[in-house]
Amino acid sequence: MSNLPTYQADFRDWKADAEFPARPLRTNEWRNGLLVRMPNHLGDAVMALPALCALRPLLPPACGLYVITPESLRQLYATVEGVDGVVCLEKPHSWWESDLFHDLRSLRMGAAVLFNNSLRDTLMLRIAGVPRIYGAAKRGRSVLLTRAFRFPPRRSRELAGAHLAKRCMAIAAALGADVSAARMPELNMSHMMVTLTDTFCALARHPLHLVLAAGAAYGAAKRWPEQNFRKVAEYWLRRGGVVSVVGSAAEREVGDAVLAGLPPERCFNFCGETSLNVLMVLLKSAALCVANDSGVMHLAAALGTPGVAVFGPTDPAATAPVSDKWLILYRKLSCAPCFKRVCSDNRCIRAITPAMVLRAMRELCRKHGVLLQRKRVSPTLPATDEHTRNSGREI
Questions:
Q1: Residues of the chain with CATH 3.40.50.2000
Q2: pLDDT digits (tens, 9 = 90+) for 222-265
Q3: Predicted confidence (pLDDT) per residue in 262-314, tens digit
Q4: CB 305 within 8 A of CB 288
């Protein structure tokens, strides 16, 4: 592995590129508890989970920890121990509706933490009557914050000084959280209501199920070429595996391109066809995941699934998956990271070849006991049973 262009994210400690004096709240200042405005995007939300959980022990008995999140991510927080309630935003990029202010006022929370950079959300929390609000000093909102935390600005074409998860943790530490033993929380899916089709059940039980996340909501520049993903899929099929591509409905054509010409009885395009719950089941049960820098990458890593991440115009120093089970393939070029949504040549991400990804996959298989076949096996999937098809209960 030494000659591969790998980047290693270090989470042995949570030291960020800025540290702030700890000023814990007094018991009476918490009132009924804490609101945390989590990021809108799945990947950012997952990276903020360690800091969210580090805040929980600060709360006095009988105080609650509530998150504010887009409706699309509600089920994520149902798997996080210590989250007492979820306040959902139907339109997270718009002004909040009047009934939401009523709900927040009735909660009588003593403090709020913002793990996003929105000026609008900061103002909304002020209008909702939250007396103490904490967050990064961004977009002119410092005057509205009880404490505004200033982090060093990003330098053009240089890797970040600290990971997003560590910056969130620095804010938690400033409120008095003990971050010395912080980690990604275990996502508890045992109580979720998940109804799976026969195909989903069979994939979840297959010992060699490979999940490919070939899309990227940010833009085409983040996408490793579809033909490269297809070569990865072809290799996995030759070794006895089955393959599924996951993503949003907008990435359906990407999934079709990846699987073009491959046997449909062993390859499945689920882009736009999975709820968050079903996606979590597929990722949790997968043997391996190969992904672009995306929300699926972060979710798979948080669920404990090993994987390979391909980075190009974005910054692995800031957004690598929070896991020691992932290998990040990245070649630092003079023009990167540029964060372009569209690029004329995509030479940074094209510098990562299928051979590199396959070598990384074999390394992970050896390390995590994934036993690939040397001969072709039957294309049929294992039978399902009623217990697998309908597991858990509704939240």
A1: 10-174, 194-377+385-391
A2: 999 999 999 999 999 999 999 999 999 999 999 999 999 999 99
A3: 999 999 999 999 999 999 999 999 999 999 999 999 999 999 999 999 999 99
A4: yes
pLDDT tens digit sequence for 167-178: 999 999 999 999
Whether pLDDT at 385 is above 90: no
DSSP helix/strand/coil, 42: helix
For residue 1, with 0-12 CB atoms within 10 Å meaning exposed, 13-18 middle and 19 or more buried, which class applies?
A: exposed
* Residue owning tokens 């833009």: 219
Domain 194-377+385-391: give its CATH code: 3.40.50.2000
DSSP letter string over 237-258? HHTT-EEEE---GGGHHHHHHH
Tell me if residue 284 falls in helix, strand or coil: helix
Tokens representing residue 204 in the block: 């979840």
Q: Compute the distance between CA of residue 88 and CA of residue 210 in angstroms, rounded to an integer.
A: 32
Tell me the whole-structure pTM to 2 decimals: 0.94
Tell the CATH topology of 10-174: Rossmann fold (3.40.50)
Q: How far apart, in whole angstroms, are the C-alpha atoms of residue 261 and residue 380?
A: 18
Instruction: Specify the pairing of strand 64-70 against strand 85-89.
Output: parallel
> What distance in Å separates the CA atoms of residue 353 and residue 351, rounded to the nearest whole number?
6
